Predict the 3D structure of the following.
Amino acid sequence: MAFGDVELLIRKLPDGCWVPAKNKVVAVGERRVSLRRYAWALKHGSAPRGFDVRATCGRKMCVRPSHCELHPSEKATELALGGEALDRSRGEVGAVVVGEELVPARTYRAIREHPAASLAALRTKFGLSSSTIYKIRAGLAEVAA
Ligand SMILES: [Zn+2]
């Protein structure tokens, strides 16, 4: 399926958002994936395991890839917070790679959830470089190997 085919599954709103025309879930072979994740995969490649694709434009239903970002999934972050052993076979992650630094999922989420926090405060609290914090804020991360 080409990216253009997503257009058959969505409705384009005048403000630029794309919402599901009908179903929010797409069948891919035997798997069922959300239309948002599917659209993301056609545009950027599959979202890594342990990450959700979330709309950041303010419209929860939006599936347009350019209106979405990757976020560590709640489940992965809960595992990291609870300090439980990670079950890599199920694809959960406790850390994310940001540029060349390995950042705990808990730290990643804390930075994402406090966009108004000062850079200096975050550098001091988490011991990360400014460039890493910028990258986290921009949603640039991948799952740690
Ligand atoms: Zn949108």
In short: The radius of gyration is 17 Å. Helices lie at 35-44, 74-82, 105-113, 119-126, 130-137. The beta strands are 10-12, 18-20, 25-28, 31-34, 51-55, 68-72, 95-98, 101-104, 142-143. Residues 3 and 31 are 19 Å apart (CA to CA).
